[in-house]
Structure formats: C-alpha cells, structure tokens
Amino acid sequence: MKEILYIQAGPSANHVGTHFWNAQESYFTYGEDEDPTVFHDRSFREGVTSKVTLEGGVVEYRQDPIPKSAYQARLEAGESDELEDKDVTTDTSNVRFWSDYSRVYYHPRSFQKLPDLAEWERAEGEWNASKETFEKHEHEHDIMDDDVRFFIEECDGLQGVQLLSDCGSFGGFTDAFITAFRDEHPKIPSLAFALLSSASNILVHADEEQNAMKAINDALCMRSIEAMSTISVPLQHPSTWQRKEWLEGLNVDLRSQYHTSALLATHIESATLPLRLKRSQHDIASLSSMLNASGTLGISHLAGRYPVPSAVVWSRETERRLYDLSAITEASAKSGNTRAAEYARLHVSRGFNASEYAPYEDYFDARSPAPFSIHATPYPTPTSFPHISTSPSEKHRALSALTTSSATAPLLASYATLVQSCADRRADVIVRMGMEFDEMRELKDDLWALCDRYAGPDEEWKGEEDVLSEDEET
C-alpha cells in the first residue's frame, strides 16, 4: 500500500502538522458514488472508534483539565457547517495550542513524551541543543521505541518516513531518531523537513552567544539530516520571511504561529501530494530520483504561492512571487549571481482551471530545466484553516514547488562561516554548548564540502584559512 510513517517533533512541527492532518481529514468522502482523490491508507491506519482500548494496566494521573477552545467546543457540538464564523478561527487570541484547532482523532500511541530537561538545561533555553542534550536523548530514551516499531510493523509496504522537526528545541531528538532509524532500516527512504531557528537567516557573530548557539544547532541538525535522509528540506523561521509580493492576497500575521504554520502546511501538503494521489505513481524514492538525479544533492528547497489569483498571467514577474521558504535572504552571499542555477524542479498546482494549463506549461516548459508538473484538485481549506486569504474565491488555489538548485550554497556557506569563526576564535559559545573545538572544525569542513556540491557553474565557495591558536602554533 506504500504507507508513509509520519514523525513530528517539536511545538512548531505540531502546529504545522495539525494543519497538515486537518487537510488529510478533509479528503475523506462519505457518499457511495464519491471516489476519493488520494489513497487514505497511505497516511491513516484503519480506525475502530475515537476511544481505543489499550492493553495492559493503566496508571492514572489527574490534573485540572484545560478548557476546550471555542472551535473544539462547537466542533464537538456538531456545528461543523457553521464554523466558518470568523470569530472562531481568525482571531489568533483564540488559539492557545495546536490542539485548539485539531480536527483529527489520533491513535493513543501516536503521542510520545520525552524526558524533561534538567533545570540547568532549561536555564539555557529550550533552543540550546548542547552536546549533553544530544547524549540525554541517546542514553535516557529509546528513540526507536516499541510504539514506533508498532506502526512500522503494521505497514504492508512502507514507502518511507516523512519527518517534520524543530531544529531549535528538538535538534537532539531529531539527530538521535534519524540515526537510530537509519541503523535499523538502512534502505527505507526518508523525506525530512527541518524547521530552522530564528537565527537561521540573519548575520550572526561568534560573540552573539544566544544567536550563535541557535545557528550552530541548526547547522548540526542540517548536517545530520542531510547525511541520513533521502531528501531534506530546510525551512526558514517565519520571523525571517520577507514582506514582499508573495504576501499579496493575504492578511497574515507573521507573528502568529497559527497563521504561519498554515502557510507552511499548505505548501508541504501540496508538494507531497504526489506521494498520496491516486493518479500518481510517485513515492518518496522516485521523488528523490527526480530531485537528486546525481545522488549527491539531497537538499531541496520548498517554494510556493498561496493563493494564486484566478487572472494570473505567467511571466518572470509573476514567477518571482513563488517565494522560496528555504533560501537565505539577508545574510551576505559570496556569489555575484542574482539567480540560482536550477538542477531539478517539481511543481504541484491546486485548483487551476483546465484552460489555465496551456499558458502555464508554455511558460514553464521553456525553462531549463522544465519542471515536472502535476495539476491537482483544489487545496482543501477546512474550517480550522485561518481566514487569511483576502479573496475567498481563490483560497483553494496554490502552486507549490520542490527545487534543487545552487540557492542551497549561500545557506550552507552562512553556517560554515559562523562555525569557522567560532572555531578559529575558540569562542566561548563552543564550551557553553559542551562541544570540542575539533568537532567544530569537522562541522566546518563538512559544511564547506556540502556548499561546494551545490555551487553553480560560475560560483566558488571556500572558507578562509584556519587561524591557529597560540597553543596550536607551538
């Protein structure tokens, strides 16, 4: 059945994942003559009831219940047809947790609680994925525990794993999980979306300790995920998104996780739709072959536009509104090229009319490389989706893309430059993170090597010569 095992780790991942699963739930059809457009059993296991009986004894803990959100209360009251009221889903103050707008019943074994951080680790902030935190996940918690194996063993023909993880607060878990998974299942493909920290797209100096820690942690996660995943997709933190043309047609609050996670989920769900679409033959392995034909370029970028106006005329100007959610935009780049060299591209359009296919294809087929395009059904916007589109008639129209290009090189170079600076200066941040200077130099070398893989034909990326400390010179 080509099932997909989904792993979400971290608060931001759970917000994005909630919108993703609400969209999956909206694909269900209930009429005898309705034919679903996707294979539901690739993402959902067969359910019995909303209350599942678990084997074994039960240890009960009681605490004051958290009041239901207005949305959840009305949903459970059976008012699903009336939930378009803006007072339920538009006001971000109504959303406290991702569960406030969840529409899906989850299997009880879907949720895993990791051990609490020690008090000294909390003092550094949840984003501090120090070496001790990595070791904590490796030694105090069986990452590939029985619950994960339970879902893997239920699959008849697992096509792979789709991972969505916060690098900031769950970097250690992500590193340990993906390493353990690859040890047990070396041949199963994986698609990993890495949610970078707020320091991922800014000029960070080695002396700016907090931001340097965040950025180094991002670099560690990216290196690990790239090495262990078939495809990895870094995603910039919403605080770094540029307020440009791509936000036209949207009334979005970039400070609201409820809003920004909906945008991310729209493009993640659409770009991965071919893995679930009935009329598509693609799986994670074939998607990887399309995006990474050489076998050496496993990092892809996610880009897109939502909503797409119904009167759009495709040109270089309108293409600029396909915003790259992975690329670095503010840090200085060493390349003089203003346009990235593209190696592969997958497009998934949602809600386009048949009359729009020809002009769309005329424009993009002339590109090199021409994208592999899939025209699909409108994007589902359940009542849990925030009312951010200023044109309700266009809220189901989207264009999402996965690309492999030289745009990855500046992103990797920004991390490599920081790590190299920290190592050369023997910065205190390295000690604070519990790392060795040799580990930082190894990370720096790995990042520069990755950077060179993605460089365009006229680009050259290299680090500065290492500066030896007085101890090393003697």
Automatic annotation (TrEMBL):
<dbReference type="GO" id="GO:0005739">
    <property type="term" value="C:mitochondrion"/>
</dbReference>
<dbReference type="InterPro" id="IPR019605">
    <property type="entry name" value="Misato_II_tubulin-like"/>
</dbReference>
<dbReference type="GO" id="GO:0007005">
    <property type="term" value="P:mitochondrion organization"/>
</dbReference>
<dbReference type="InterPro" id="IPR029209">
    <property type="entry name" value="DML1/Misato_tubulin"/>
</dbReference>
<feature type="domain" description="DML1/Misato tubulin">
    <location>
        <begin position="91"/>
        <end position="277"/>
    </location>
</feature>
<keyword id="KW-0496">Mitochondrion</keyword>
<dbReference type="InterPro" id="IPR049942">
    <property type="entry name" value="DML1/Misato"/>
</dbReference>
<comment type="similarity">
    <text>Belongs to the misato family.</text>
</comment>
<dbReference type="Pfam" id="PF14881">
    <property type="entry name" value="Tubulin_3"/>
</dbReference>
<comment type="function">
    <text>Involved in the partitioning of the mitochondrial organelle and mitochondrial DNA (mtDNA) inheritance.</text>
</comment>
<dbReference type="Pfam" id="PF10644">
    <property type="entry name" value="Misat_Tub_SegII"/>
</dbReference>
<dbReference type="InterPro" id="IPR036525">
    <property type="entry name" value="Tubulin/FtsZ_GTPase_sf"/>
</dbReference>
<protein>
    <submittedName>
        <fullName>Protein dml-1</fullName>
    </submittedName>
</protein>
<feature type="domain" description="Misato Segment II tubulin-like">
    <location>
        <begin position="2"/>
        <end position="51"/>
    </location>
</feature>
